[in-house]
Amino acid sequence: MLNFNYRNPTHVVFGKDRIAELDQLVPANARVLITYGGGSVKRFGTLDKVKAALGNRIVFEFAGIEANPKYDTLMQAVEVARKENIDFLLAVGGGSVMDGTKFIALATQFEGDTTSLLYHGFAPVPVADDKVIPLGVIATLPATGSEMNAFAVVSYQGGKFPVNHPNVYPTFAMLDPELTFSLPKIQVANGVVDAFVHVIEQYATYPVDGRVQDRMAEGIMRTLIEIGPITVAEPTNYQARANLMWSATSALNGMIGVGVPFDWTTHMIGHELTAIFGIDHAQTLAAVLPSVWRVRKPQKHAKLLQFAERVWDITEGDDDSRINQAIDKTEAFFQQVGLKTRLRDYGIDKAQIDDVIAALAAHGMTALSETGDLGLDISREILEKAW
Ligand code: NZQ
Ligand code: ZN
To answer: Record's CDD domains (predicted)?
Structure first.
């Protein structure tokens, strides 16, 4: 196992009918900015409940954080936060709203060019801790894990940029599965696949004898395989949705990723596909992951064999056949929940793979994978196989 530090300060408030507890979770004298997306939280009544729970606090609203939140939109919220001296942010929505709100928390008191916050890759952005506005989240879409991590992804000038800082862990994350019952089926399917691929990117690398991490990862994946199709088909099945919600949070709250290598190739290629073609985040992953594995079988041999046996119960055949069966079953699982797994199914021409390669080059994504050996030539092979 590799050395690691682990700290996660987010207070998780999980379960039905918890919104009234916001009164204890948000500082009593806070000037609060509630942030949300295109209006689902208004349509389904969540916003009214949130405002009622905040009682007499001074509350402002910022609506319109879009999917794959744009820097320019977030900077409009930053203006509001500066003008109104906001000292607590409350995100109500999916990954895009939660991520966007983290960026607002960082940018509001940042002195200097706020676009510079976008160019630090996986390193924390250089902002002093006390210059980050605290935030809480009410998650309405189980998928990204943003509710319990310190990451955000912000869209700017044709790219998607990861941003992180230890002080953007939400102080609390309210996770009420019932708030997700209103999701369209496709967003639930997106959530199942995004969570699954988060686990995979921290698992299917090379073995370091991280037994706890591996078995937790396998447990989350088996849970997603069990409940994924059920929660897509039965939106109001509470237990299935509750298990999806906790799987998605557990997949990317750092716990399964401690002391083990990580890959993130599928995500980095997927981000370019979203930026160029507007494909939903999880759908890019559904198309890219099976192909990453088909190209990288030799590098991932031991973990893919373990995955075949422990996640899919595949015990027959030689090594190569077991790995192939596991890849095929995973791809079929993504299709079963409702996502397409080929780039051509998303309307991409084969010639447009050149544009993706150019974007990867422009964003410095030239040494991907758990060992940094995955250059543009291999990304091209992955994209061609995914087409
Ligand atoms: O905007 P509204 O009207 O709220 O509608 C949203 C949006 O159209 C809708 N929705 C959300 N909750 C709903 C609902 N509709 C009905 N009922 C509800 N309860 O769903 C649509 C998609 O929402 P979005 O937040 O964009 O989806 P998701 O949660 O999948 O987030 C995707 C974003 O997260 C980033 C992605 O790159 C993408 O920008 N990621 C963030 C990560 C992180 N912070 O760690 C990791 C991930 O890998 C990912 O990159
Ligand atoms: Zn993801």
So the answer is: BDH (cd08187)
Ligand 1 pocket, residue 149 CB under 6 Å: yes
The strands making up 11-14's β-sheet, listed across from edge to edge, are: 11-14, 172-175, 135-139, 88-93, 31-35, 58-62
The closest of 297, 331, 56, 46 to 193, measured between CA atoms, is 331
Mean residue pLDDT of the chain comes to: 97
184-386 CATH fold = Dehydroquinate synthase-like, alpha domain (1.20.1090)
Task: For residue 206, report the distance from its CA to the centre of ligand 1, in Å.
Answer: 31
User: 11-179, what's its fold?
Assistant: Rossmann fold (3.40.50)
Is the pLDDT confidence value at 129 over 90?
no
- Say which ligand is closest to the CA of 95: 1
Ligand 1 atom nearest the C-alpha of 182 is 17
Please indicate whether the domains covering 11-179 and 184-386 agree at the CATH topology level.
no
Tens of pLDDT, residue by residue over 182-212, are: 999 999 999 999 999 999 999 999 999 999 9
| pTM, to two decimals | 0.98
Q: Rounded to an integer, what distance in angstroms lies between the CA atom of residue 52 and that of residue 39? A: 18
What residue segments make up the domains of the chain, in order of their start?
11-179, 184-386
What residue's CA is closest to ligand 1, atom 45?
A: 146
pLDDT digits (tens, 9 = 90+) for 287-298: 999 999 999 999
* HEC letters along 294-309: HHCCCCCHHHHHHHHH
DSSP label of 70: B
pLDDT of 1-57, one tens digit each?
A: 999 999 999 999 999 999 999 999 999 999 999 999 999 999 999 999 999 999 999
* Residue 187 near ligand 1, beta carbon < 6 Å: yes
Answer whether residue 218 shows pLDDT above 90. yes
Q: How far is the CA of 264 from the centre of ligand 2 (A)?
A: 9
Q: Is the dihedral of CA 50, 56, 57, 61 positive or negative?
A: positive
pLDDT at 130 over 90: no
